[in-house]
Amino acid sequence: MSDPFFTLYRDLPRYGPGCDDATREALRRLGPLAPRSRVLDLGCGNGAQTLVLAASLDDPSVTAVDLHQPFLDELTVAAAHTGLGDRIHTRCDDFGALDEPPGCADLLWSEGAIYHLGFAGGLQRWRPLLAPDGRAAVTELTWLTDAPPDDAATFWRDAYPAMTTEDGNRAAADEVGWIVDDTFTLPASAWWESYYAPLAARIAVLRPDADDALRAVIADTEREIDLWIDHGGAYGYVFYLLRPC
Q: What is the predicted pLDDT for the residue at 193?
């Protein structure tokens, strides 16, 4: 039996909010990186941002890590089609338990995935992987107000109870040995055009023949989409650009 989550998300352009322009903006704000930089893209999904990293940096070696092999297979095909296959290597593994040697990466990257470990937890686990002069860029779901609407607060208290404000994440990063140099919030288009609109279109295709398990996933997903339409200004993904203390 197929997993209803992966049935819903298969073949979408992205598996979470994000956009190529935001990835490029994060790279721009980080400043120049040395040629042939070693990049770890952690929780890469189907690798939309991986392709941008491989195309934008100067002859990098990008290792894209995800637990779901079909996502990595999608990335491998896309990399070959865009002529980036020699720059991207995939690895099916748990990004919270990598056995890479210390200092193996010049750049740590993670879009929409660090929440699996918690913001502080992920930064703490990944810090040894970074070279002494390395940098990191991660997106984290963040409250954009100190007084979120009740519906949004209730939903995210259940879905991601560790979610906090930018100030809270800055303090958490500091506690585990990181400095946040810069931040910016992803635009609304990164939620709707890149993610929710294609997801809603796929729901419309799947709904007529969905079994009970898939219908339950669809219902949860539509609740999330409706919440963002009503209260998306209260929360968002924030890019955090960091370096170790």
A: 96
Token pair, residue 208, equals 């007529």
pLDDT of residue 9: 87
Assign 1 a pLDDT band (cuts: 50, 70, 90). Answer: very low
Instruction: Write the DSSP assignment of the chain as a string of letters.
Output: ---HHHHHHTT-S-SSS--HHHHHHHHHHH----TT-EEEEET-TT-HHHHHHHHHSSS-EEEEEES-HHHHHHHHHHHHHTT-TTTEEEEES-TTS--PPTT-EEEEEESS-GGGT-HHHHHHHHGGGEEEEEEEEEEEEEESSSS--HHHHHHHHHH-TT-EEHHHHHHHHHHTTEEEEEEEEPPHHHHIIIIIHHHHHHHHHHGGG--HHHHHHHHHHHHHHHHHHHHGGGEEEEEEEEEE-
Question: Which two structure tokens, joined as six digits, stand for 30?
Answer: 């980080």
Question: Residue 76 burial by CB count (10 A; 0-12/13-18/19+): exposed, middle or buried?
Answer: middle
- Displacement of CA 29 from its chain's centroid (Å): 18
Mean pLDDT throughout 76-94? Answer: 97
In this prediction, residues 66-88 reach a mean pLDDT of: 96
Per-residue pLDDT tens digits for 134-175? 999 999 999 999 999 999 999 999 999 999 999 999 999 999
